[in-house]
Amino acid sequence: MTANSRAQSFNTAAAQYAASRPSYPPALFDAIEELIGDRLAGTRVADVGAGTGIATALLRERGAEVIAVEPGEAMARECRKALPEVQVVRGDGNALPLADASCDLIAYAQSWQWTDPARSVPEALRVLSPAGALAIWWNTTAFDVPWIRAQHERIARCCGTQLAPATRPRDSDAIRLAGLTGLRVTRRQVRWTRVVPLDMHLANIGSRSAFLVLDEPRRRTFFAGERRLLSDAFPDGEVDETYLVDLLVAVRP
Q1: Residue 156 lies in a domain
Q2: Tens digits of per-residue pLDDT, 86-105?
Q3: Residue 206: which of 214, 197, 196 has the closest Cα?
Q4: CA dihedral 212, 214, 218, 222 (to 10 degrees)
Q5: Is the pLDDT of residue 232 over 70?
Q6: What's the domain range around 104?
Q7: Would you say residue 161 lies in a domain?
C-alpha cells in the first residue's frame, strides 16, 4: 500500500471524517501567534491538506484570510459545504496552486506527512512572503494515558503498522524527521481533551487511513472488540479522548 493510496483513502470516508475528527484547542492558535510574532487576524493563510475544513474554520475565527488547498475531491466537497464562503482549490503541498509570495502563513494540520519535504519545503518558501512562516501540527497520541496507549498497541497489531515509541522525539529529532533541517524551527506541545460518545470515538478511529485501506472483515472484528472493551471502561458511553498537539513553526534561516 503506497503513501499516496493511503492519502487518497480519505475520500471514501469524507463525511465520517468531518463528523468525528477532533478539532484543535484555542491554545494552539495562541502558540502560533506567539511564534510568528503577529496576530492571525488579517493574515493571508493557506491551509494545505485542508480536508473537510476543521483547521480552516478555526483560522477564519481568528480573523485570518484563508484559502483551503485540498487534493481530494470528496474532502474538498465537504469543505465547501461546511465553509461556502472560503475559496477551496485542488492541489497539494508538493505543487501548490498559489502565486509566489502570496501568503503570510502556510498551515499543515494533520497533512505534512503526506508531502515530500524535498518538494514541499521549496514550494512553501516560494509561496510565502519574505517574513512568512510554516505552521505544521498534529493531534498526537497521549501515550501517558494507559487506556490510550493500550488502544494504540491494538491498532498497530490490527493494521500492521509500526508501534510508535512511548517517548516523543527530542526537538532536534522531530525537526529532522519532518524534513525541516534547513529552516529555523520552534516546537511547542499543547495538551487538551474532548469528551465524545463512544460511537463518535470509534468513527474517529475508523476514519484513519490505516483502517480505510483495511479489508472489511478485519475492520468489523477490530471494532466489535473495541466496542466491548471501551463499553466496560466507559460505562456511561462517554469517552475522554486526550491529545497532545505537536506544533512546529518554521521560518527562513
Answers
A1: no
A2: 999 999 999 999 999 999 99
A3: 214
A4: -40
A5: yes
A6: 3-142+168-195+242-251
A7: no
